[in-house]
Amino acid sequence: MKELIQNAEEFLESGEDNFKKKRFNAAVSDFFKAVTNYCDWLIYLDTKIIIKNHNERFNFLKKYHPKIHMKILEFYKKYRESYNLRLSKEDAYPLKEFANELKRDIKNKG
To answer: Of the CATH numbers 1.10.8, 1.10.287, 1.20.120, 2.60.450, which one belongs to the domain with range 2-109?
Structure first.
């Protein structure tokens, strides 16, 4: 499932580009997608199951990675706000940091 990591890195790169260009709604969306792909990779490593939707992801994270589960719930709200609100650098930055933190954690695992 190398595709999960490749997709995560593509979304992370896109998020970084959008962040630099001050497109914070797009950055939040991209960073969240990177986070979910990294989470799906962690779940896959634990269970060999490929996640199909947000509910399934949240349930597996709650069981296997409770700390990540708590954080991703916060960020899911912000991600949904990106649909119809204008977000700021302050909204995007914590998600950017978390996406990069997950990337580092995954690299250290492998």
So the answer is: 1.20.120
In the chain, domain spans: 2-109
Question: How far apart, in whole angstroms, are the C-alpha atoms of residue 56 and residue 84?
Answer: 25
In angstroms, rounded to a whole number, what is the distance separating the alpha carbons of residues 15 and 26? 7
- Give the whole-angstrom CA distance, residue 94 versus residue 85: 17
Q: Which pair of structure tokens corresponds to residue 32? A: 């969240």
pTM above 0.90?
yes
For 9, the token pair is: 């890195």
Tell me the per-residue pLDDT of 71-97, one tens digit each, with 9 for 90 and over: 999 999 999 999 999 999 999 999 999
Helix or strand holding residue 75 (H, E): helix 66-81
Query: Do the beta carbons of residue 35 and residue 98 sit within 8 Å?
Result: yes
| Number of neighbours of residue 90 by Cβ within 10 angstroms | 8
